[in-house]
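Please check this:
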Amino acid sequence: MGSAGPQCCHFRLHGGSPRPARDPCYLPAVAQPPAPAPAAVAPPTEAEERLRRISKVELHQHVDGSIPPEVTWELMKHYRLNPVDSLEAMRRHLEIQAGEEGTLLAYLDKMHYPLWVTQFYENVSKVTEAIALAAAEDGVGTLELRYAPLIHTYAGLTPRQSIRAALSGMNHAHRRHPRMKLGLIVIAMRQHGPHIAKILARQALAEAQHLHERTGVVGFDIAGPERGNPPRLFRSAYEIARLGRLGLTAHAGEDGPVEYIWEAVDELGVQRIGHGCAAARDPELVRRLARDRIAVEVCLSSNYHTGAVKRGERHPVHVFLEAGVPVALCCDNSTVSRTGALHESRLAAAELGTEAVERIHREADGYTFIRPETALANRDLD
């Protein structure tokens, strides 16, 4: 997922708890002078205009890897935590660089700097709002953001307050884009273990969309290092989430074996799979995904960046589409991969055609966990 980087021959890529008090140290951004007028550019093509007009469906985008670099830089400068002296230098710490591709852990390492400043309620709210507003600019009409609340509690927030902080930012964005459908998927990190996952599932239920008059939690997920952390160990957490009427998805088959996807389907009962690249090597599993209408959240750019798909290899999305498996085109981490919903649509259109991309987004909306009709009436609450 990047707007720059080595070209791929297939996708033309390079390569209730009360709300806590406001953080007293946080200051609003200082107004900046207007940027110089951009140089004249060629008018967009008809295909580009069609891609821009699509109401895009984003079902797999992480908060920690999608904070606009300018927002992270502003916060780090405010707290005097910036490790470098310029925004451009900071970008190299936040965005995948040439020579860094190929492993999931190297990719995930790009997300540790934002964690320094997203430990306060107001900051979590601010960055989440910024991500949602950026998605709206890309034409996203349905947005599910993924958020691991536990890694934002080091400064004293409770898990419930951490979840509420992210929802607050999404509600602020919704006021500016009231027709946009928004929902939060709570992530349990595999390395924290199954017991913590059960605690987070219960905390997620307390903020479930169908129990509130505002944007809420719509799904549950596990993420983080796959190897050595099989999905079956998290069965109890998923049962809690299922009984609480949350949508179920799981990162599987990105860095782990195809058996982990089978476990996510058979043991966890997921309705969607995050990445799922390994499934393309198992025809029986592909047929199962197609038969049971289990959607795969496809992340073109990041799959090449993490090494889930090797440069020069045909992306598994072709196998899924040819077999009738439902798919959604997703960003994963828009900052780390230097991408967005529009860019991912361009990449797919270059290989599949514009009409196919329009159809994918249209059909993907049927697999969102956001169900506004099941929520209580919205009274413009935070």
Q: What stands out?
A: The domain at 51-373 is CATH 3.20.20.140 (TIM Barrel). The chain has 15 helices and eight strands. Confidence is low (pLDDT under 50) at residues 1-38. Residues 159-176 form the longest helix (18 residues).
